[in-house]
Recover the amino acids of this structure.
């Protein structure tokens, strides 16, 4: 781990946030010493701050002495626009898609250079996928990510392509020129396709949710077993759902900005 | 608003948390002055803290100058045990229930004296309900709440009954003795029923998720139009789902505590 030389200059609020930021999917539970090491803060500071965070409910401490994100922080986070407005509006449309397909239905936004998964519906018969709510996956390897990239600001796409494109499977598109062509094709046909680019054995179809402004609010995708070759058949329903979500988002936006 | 006389003694981390705590369902977006008033902190302090919170991603500021909960805080919160483990395990079972009913499917835990809604599935044809993810509703007026109360520690129930029982509709059980009888009946038959006790026009059936320990991990409920009189018919599926969730939770618990 890289030592953060700015640590001593961090404010107390900044240190408290740093403690919240050290949890990740691989480390949802941490001991006090691991908190201190990962946040690069003295143990005594972490001890005091963790106590404050626990008493507010930003962290919780289980019977084994492990800390995890607390219920009150989770509750506050349900008020984030992405979780509240976007997810709440999208969910019934996602349910309709789930009912007709019984497959994984994804809702993602882009944050930085990642596709950030905001909602995922899946049943017992859906193909296993690595996405989870709150997960970040590379945009160029996922259906929702390619749908978002294909509609993104050209300057953003230029910066995306200028970075290394990590290979996730042997089918991930990692050549810059090929990805640029793929994004143009995606924009032209109006939906993105992936074929084992993120997970071997699964493929996906996704569309951007049309937004008022230039960038899409998010993207909606369906992930299925790659042996199924009827992805195109799913496009009309997917598109209707994305348009339905866009209409409701626009109505909600107007309601907020008028009142 | 009650003036908080402890405010000047709050630490900087405590003040930062106070800013996160002032958002609620009715106020998911707040101006800087509202943040200051609701957190009972000086404007200059709030200005500086809000800047720190925005730069970390705990808050975000929109084009109109309103603050809301930020994407990075939402992302960290997806790692809370209630959102990660419980929701992730329960979701496919909830989907099965949704598929067979097309109604609102709820997953709730109890926190303090409230039923806290962790997940909700609903489609376009489900009866409109006031629950949302992150919402708190009174335990005695909801199916999931009564299912949780019926299995709760007797001392907890005693304290619950000692408090005033708010009336939500004219059918809410607000008499202490009647609620105690209702909870005994719920425990005996193994599932909770409500009939327009939370929302006129809707009724619900719910079961507690059996847990290792004494208290249930959560409760699973279905909310339907009250004109339907076939709630009992839903019980076997509901119970099978709750037992399936309990088995997976136990397996996940063992996996975490062995490794």
């Amino acid at each position: 781990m890289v030592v953060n030389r700015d640590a001593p200059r961090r404010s107390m609020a900044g240190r408290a946030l740093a403690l919240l930021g050290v949890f990740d999917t691989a480390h949802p539970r941490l001991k006090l010493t691991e908190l201190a090491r990962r946040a690069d803060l003295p143990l005594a500071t972490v001890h005091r701050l963790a106590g404050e965070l626990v008493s507010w409910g930003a962290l919780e401490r289980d019977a084994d002495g492990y800390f995890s994100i607390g219920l009150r922080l989770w509750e506050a986070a349900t008020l984030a626009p992405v979780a509240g407005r976007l997810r709440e509006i999208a969910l019934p449309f996602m349910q309709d898609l789930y009912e007709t397909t019984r497959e994984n239905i994804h809702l993602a936004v882009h944050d930085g250079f990642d596709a950030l998964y905001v909602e995922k519906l899946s049943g017992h018969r859906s193909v296993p996928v690595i996405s989870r709510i709150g997960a970040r996956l590379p945009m160029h390897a996922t259906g929702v990510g390619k749908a978002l990239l294909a509609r993104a600001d050209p300057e953003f796409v230029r910066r995306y392509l200028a970075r290394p494109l990590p290979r996730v499977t042997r089918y991930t598109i990692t050549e810059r020129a090929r990805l640029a062509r793929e994004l143009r094709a995606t924009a032209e046909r109006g939906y993105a396709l992936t074929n084992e680019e993120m997970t071997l054995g699964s493929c996906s179809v996704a569309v951007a949710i049309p937004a008022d402004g230039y960038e899409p609010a998010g993207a909606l995708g369906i992930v299925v077993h790659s042996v199924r070759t009827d992805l195109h058949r799913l496009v009309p329903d997917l598109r209707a759902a994305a348009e339905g979500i866009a209409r409701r988002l626009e109505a909600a936006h107007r309601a907020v900005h008028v009142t």
In short: The longest strand of chain B covers residues 104-111. Residues 235-258 of chain B form the longest helix (24 residues). Chain B touches chain A through 61 residues (CB under 8 Å). Chain B has a mean pLDDT of 89.
